[in-house]
Amino acid sequence: MLSPGVRPLTIDADGITLSGLVSEPAQDPRAVIVALHGCGMNAGYFDGQAHPDVSLLVLGARLGYTVLALDRPGYGTSADRLPAGQKLSLQATTVRAAIAAFTAAHTPGVGTLLLGHSFGAKVAFAVAADWQGPAPLGVEVSGCGRRPAVHAGQLSPDRGEGLRQRNWGPLSLYPPDTFRMCQTVVATMPAQEVSAVAGWMRLSAWVLPRVRVPVRLTFAQHEAWWSRDDEDLADLVGRLSAAPRVVVDHLPHAGHNISLGWAARAYHLKALAFAEECLAARTQQARRGG
Q1: Which of 62, 103, 111, 193 fits as disulfide partner to 31, beta carbons 3.0 to 4.6 Å?
Q2: Which domains are delineated in the chain?
């Protein structure tokens, strides 16, 4: 089931077919929001069905944006070809190719903002780090820090109730039908993503300093996967040394899976406001001839 105005699509990403969902505004888009889901989910994460206010795809199109939610490599259509998924750097290459193909066909000349959740945030950072051509407008991420709050042995995709608690937090944070409606959103986690999660401290030391666009970091009140004390946040922001602007936001009444909860609309509005800020900055830069 999809929300009104949301449709499935496939994209040829340099020989790898990726699936996903797209929504488009009635007028020319202000920008393209490329949304990348986390581990064990798929593109449907951004089109939650438990309540009309939850879908990023619906809200984004309503506010003038084209929203492209991709099934990352190893999910959706590409799962049969890439059952183990791809390493982070290869995912970034594939996703860049998909974005280039989509924008060339549908939105030439329109800026792109990368929005990533959890593992999708890591991919968004990696995509931005080695972007070729005009830079993306910015990177918005949620559910991703730098130092895990759990031991490596707890990163297994099969950790029972403990895994549920970390992914969701208090159940009252979500509309009542969330878990019934999410059956089509949940997907098998490709094996290569487990090692990439465990190695993020090392990988991030290489990836984050190469991000040269504005970054917004969102942490849910009940985020349980990542350490978020002042020292951890200072380290994370410090690693983004080439980003011209870094914003850190803490979202109340939200669990790790922000975009499926009651706080989803607030989060999505803030993310789209960040896109507006990035668009304004790009306009000012063009006026100055930068």
Answers
A1: 111
A2: 6-287 (3.40.50.1820)
